[in-house]
Amino acid sequence: MTNKTKLYVEAKEFEGKKFFFKDFGSEVHGKPSFRLWINRQFVEKDEQGEFIQLPLKNAKVVKTEKGNLVLRPEQGWNTFAVGVPCGYRGESGLQVEEDHEGYMYQIYASERGSLGISTYALICTQSDKVTIEWWRTGRLYGDSPRGITVYYLDGHEETLDRTEDGVEDLENSLGGA
What does each C-alpha distance from 25 to 5, 36, 111, 145 come to in angstroms? Predict the structure, then answer.
């Protein structure tokens, strides 16, 4: 079973051509962290609109000379959406374990973030999986304050909650050295 993230995109028309984009993040007063322009080959359509599904194989986010971020086809690269929600009135954070290029963004639970600030990222890597070590604060109502999540290219995730020693816990639980 795959569990890919479906993100609906918007489009702008210019000189008869359609250009797709997605704003990521929702910071102070709803301001996006960044805008990602999307190559049309990744866009699919259903009854609700046009969307992309992450993770994407053979795709990479690149920064243009003008500073725009563009999701383009790139052989050997994969793009993942990772992150963890914060607790009530708390924060969250993450650290990626593999070599990668990442674009972090935050989602404020209120206009100024006083109800919580969650951290997410788009990760581009040459691996078929991404391992993140994450933490969160605030009122968690039984959720784990820290953990490790492995995101796979087929869309499934494995999470190890309540880790105090980080990646070593994951290696020990999987029979590593």
Answer: 15, 11, 12, 22
Q: Which two tokens stand for residue 136?
A: 């969160």
Q: Which residues contact 12 (CB under 8 A, 6 or more apart)?
A: 18, 19, 21
Domain boundaries, the chain: 5-173
pTM above 0.85, yes or no: yes
* Paired strand residues for 63: 69
Residue pair 67/108 in contact by the 8 Å Cβ criterion: no
- Name the β-bridge partners of 79: 56, 124
DSSP 91: B
C-alpha span between 101 and 120 (Å, rounded): 14
Beta bridge partners of 62: 70
Q: Are 125 and 78 in contact (CB under 8 A)?
A: yes
In this predicted structure, the answer to whether residue 176 has a pLDDT above a threshold of 70 is: no
Structure tokens at 102: 């990442």
Q: Give dist(CA 114, CA 129) in Å, integer.
A: 33
